[in-house]
Amino acid sequence: MGENITWVAIIGAVSGVLASLGWVVHYIVGLVKKPKLVISEGPYVANWHFIGTKNVWQFINLEVINKRGKTAYRCIAKASVIKHPPNVNHLVREYALHWADVSYSGRSTGAEPIEIGAVPQRLDVVFTVPRHKGESYLTMPIALLSPGNIPQATLPKGEYIMKVIVLCENGRGDSKLIKVISPDVGKDLQAEEIKRIPWYKRIWRKQV
Is 88 within the bounds of a domain? Predict the structure, then answer.
């Protein structure tokens, strides 16, 4: 009788372990399959010509890819201005950014979310227009619709540091620090990535 109880206990324990392992495997597989957004390219400056006009707008772009096979739903992007010229005091804490080739409206908050599958998606961050000098604009939808008329999206000439974040509803996102030079003349817009210092190098620098 005692031996039977022992075997029942052993079988119960083994079953419990196997069930736990099954749950862990299921969880890991779920994580692996979840979409993972990565800012893979940029920032770079691109010229965009409008059909039927001679207008050329400059855009600072990033490229976002989905590293997993499953489609990423309701993808959004936003920017936080971390550093700006000392004479600039009108900027808000966070901006919704515009996905390239997506229709935009006159909304002053938020932007249209998109799906990202196997095809990379371009993200607009900052832009200039030829008729305005000494400033550029964050790509809030309303600023794209009426450039120069939205003060809170305007970047007077100077150097800015921004953190750009991309997110999706059903997976992991990514972020990148960039430096933007808002120019005197629209065609001189500049941008570059700010490389993060690995944690072990930060520690080493403190010790030296």
Answer: yes
Q: 68: helix, coil or strand?
A: coil
Q: Is residue 205 part of a domain?
A: no
Are 59 and 24 in a shared domain?
A: no
- What backbone torsions phi and psi does residue 84 show, to the nearest 5 degrees? -150, 165
Strand segments, DSSP code E, in 67-173 are: 72-83, 94-96, 98-99, 114-116, 121-128, 135-138, 154-156, 158-167
Could you tell me the residue range of the domain that residue 154 belongs to?
Answer: 34-193
Q: Which of 46-60, 113-127, 134-148 has the lowest mean pLDDT?
A: 46-60
Q: Mean pLDDT across the chain, nearest whole number?
A: 82
Task: Please tell me whether residues 89 and 3 are part of one structural domain.
Answer: no
Q: How many CB atoms lie within 10 A of CB 70?
A: 14
Name the strand (E) or helix (H) holding 29. Answer: helix 2-33
Each residue's pLDDT tens digit, 187-201: 789 999 998 765 544
Residue at 38 is within a domain: yes
CA-CA distance, 158 to 162, in Å (whole number)? 13
